[in-house]
What we know:
Blueprint: H1 2-9, E1 22-27, E2 30-35, H2 42-51, H3 53-56, H4 67-70, H5 76-88, E3 93-99, E4 102-113, E5 119-126, H6 135-148, E6 155-160, H7 165-174, E7 177-188, E8 191-201, H8 209-215, E9 220-221
Parallel strand pairs: 5-6
Antiparallel strand pairs: 1-2, 1-9, 2-3, 3-4, 4-5, 6-8, 7-8
Helix pairs in contact: 6-7
Bound molecules: acetyl coenzyme *A.
Amino acid sequence: xxxxxxxxQGPVGRHPGWPARLGxxxxxxxxxxxxxxxxxxxxxxxxxxxxDRRHLEAWEPTAPxxxxxxNAAFAWPGQWSTLRGLARRGMSLPFxxxxxxxxxxxxxxxxxxxxxxxxxxxxxxxxxxxVGGGVATGAAALVVDHCFREAGLHRLEAxxxxxxxxxxxxxxKLGFREEGLFRRYLDVAGAWRDHLCYALTTEDVPSGLxxxxxxxxxxxxx
Length: 222
Ligand code: ACO
């Protein structure tokens, strides 16, 4: 029993599964990979997020302040440092998504709880220049497989607004099951919004999500 608990909690002073570089994988949009965020991502991150305000703002948690300031290159070092600190403490696995080597979005695993839960949430965004080509699905598949194997998690949850058809399609393609509706769950775009809860556990995907995407011809290992 002691051995089992220590496995679930991870070795003392180490956070299983972090840091990590996952991929490459060929999807419709190009060569997809995910890696840890870098301080030097500031300019690319800011350019995409400022350009894509209308694409992103309706689905993201409300942040105090102004969109352009919050997403300026000077705002990135603070965010990068917060993400790095959470990852080093084993509370998060934050990834930047790249397509053909260029920043295309982010996929983040947060609120990692170990012990008898071994659970976390997963969220993602992809810039308008890269949508519609399997990027979010491929990036999430890489990260889910990694979380269920190297990071030792058992369950991942994704919450999504019922109006967010593209994201619901991503979760459905991945095999996440809808488990319920959380009323007025999250402050998004200035109001408390209902969210559907989707979830996946290791038992659902014994061979992994990437293997299934490859078998279905939706991705190719490189
Ligand atoms: N209605 C239904 N399906 C749609 C629509 C629509 N209006 N628009 C696109 N789709 C489908 C696409 O056709 C595709 O499905 P298909 O492969 O069967 O054709 C699917 O949605 C999108 O799959 P991907 O190409 O893998 O995803 P993409 O790289 O385009 O990224 C994402 C999708 C992340 C939702 C992107 O649009 C985005 O960043 N949106 C803004 C931010 C956001 O909503 N983030 C998610 C918040 S919820 C969460 O994180 C759990």
